Amino acid sequence: MTNPPSAQPPLGACPGQADAARGGSDSAGSDSAGPYSAGWHRLHPLTPVVRAGTRLLSLIVVLAGIAILRQGQDKGQLFTDLFVIALALSGGFISWLVTRWQVADGVLRIETGLIRRDSRRFPLTQIQAIDVVQTGIARVLGLAELQLRVAGSDSSGGRLACLRLADAEALRRELLAGSASAARSAVIGPASVPPAAMPAEIGTAPVPERKLFRTQPGRLAVAIVLSRAGAIAAAVVAVVVVVLALTGSTAAIASFFPALLGMAAVVWRQFNSEYGTRIAAVPDGLQLRSGLIQTTAETIRPGRVQGVRLVEPMIWRLFGWCRLEVDVAGPKERRENRSEGRRLRAVIPVGTRSEAEQMLGELLGSRPDPASRPPRQVRFKAPLQYHNLGWGGDDHYVVAARGRVCRKTTWVPLEKVQSFRWVQGPVQRRLGLASVLLDVAGRRVRADVEDRSAREAGDLLTRLPALARSARARLG
Fold first, then answer.
1. What digits encode the pLDDT tens for the residues 137-163?
2. Which of 92, 96, 272, 404 is the most buried (most CB within 10 A)?
3. What is the three-class DSSP state of 308?
4. Residue 419 contacts by C-beta under 8 Å, 6 or more apart in sequence?
């Protein structure tokens, strides 16, 4: 692997570290040699400002309010209040001061903590993906946050916030290169990896990306209004208008304010996160960039897709629109982020069916259709869902379709399936039906083969595990 030009030393490195970085790292077992592999580094000094985020505006309002209320009164109390607020803000500076990170021997190390030291190790071979996230304040300051996706770990630990945007993107490329080379060395041995086969590192000419999709803002806004969240928000607004018209008093609608604020937050969060979604094919997978105020750049690497789901709401079908979502192997969400963690990543927040078909080809390759229809007796058990039920499969994927009003079609790679279950409820037993449930890590996406004849379900329970074993064997 070639080292980048030495004109610019690594971020946060002292002169001795810069010399070590320019000399490279040839130690055995260090597949992540690069400009960030020598010594410990610190985050950007403006990190406390970015972490404060929108709280800064609230603090300014509090300070202005204190100044107004304390006019003509004891100024010593004002200084005391300002000291307490400054003390609270100093926590972010202390956190920055005691946080450091390093890339060495194929491991990203992050250490933090003043009284209780927290040292975390992230082997590059276990990294599923690395996202570059910019909040509004970070964009103004030219900073970004790196978020590591490591299967089974807490998403709060694998964060480097914040670095200069250029440094964050460069470090991301280095970590992904180290991850790929370390994984390849683990399979075929380090001596068998030719330099030409290694991923491109920092300083090499970037490979042109192939643009695949871009979300239209107007279509996204209309689609959100016509979605479930938009319908609930419209219903709450309608109730508020009716109550206000009948009573003529704003006090009567005070109890609706929390619901209005909650729905507004939900709609805004979705619009802000999915605005300007752009997808391009790059050497290490599919790159997604999205966001209005807070932007996110992430890459879906080959082999990390746990499942793909095509969503077609009834109203959207009138316009020929659909939504394509993916479940990518990644970290467990923190408790406060669980509601977000249950949502899949929308590679196409709203698009035409032809755009979805093209993206499915990029994500899946071979793509079976849910052409197998359910038995006639399913009409008595699920009359509204009967016409949308179906399943299909081949040697690589299982696909299942379901839904009453909103049709959902889900593809799951067989090598990702962890277990199969045969389920038969009392109504199904009466009608001679059964279902085969497929369990995938994370359980955010499922491809359950529902309401088949008991004989067909038993046959599937025998054939599908064998196909899954064969799919895993092909991956080595």
1. 888 899 999 988 776 555 455 788 889
2. 96
3. strand
4. 438, 439
